[in-house]
Amino acid sequence: MLRRQQAEAVVAARKIIVHAAVSMIEMALKDLSEKKVIELDEERKAAMVGNLLVVLCGDTEAKPVINTGTLYQ
Predict the structure, then answer these.
(1) C-alpha distances in angstroms, 47 versus 5, 7, 10, 29, 57?
(2) What is the pLDDT of residues 11-33, one digit of tens each?
(3) What is the pTM of this model?
């Protein structure tokens, strides 16, 4: 019974974390667009969203990676 309660608590916490992460990403994309900081095509938006979800939803510290290439090779 305790494992089930722990699992339910983990799932509930993850739902909150994902919801908050999605809200932050929506806000970031909106702000970048409104302030004309950068224009992203759909492929780059998808890459940014994926990267931010990994960082915001992950349970370990993010490790920076330097990308020397491009999405369009």
Answers:
(1) 35, 30, 27, 12, 15
(2) 999 999 999 999 999 999 999 99
(3) 0.74
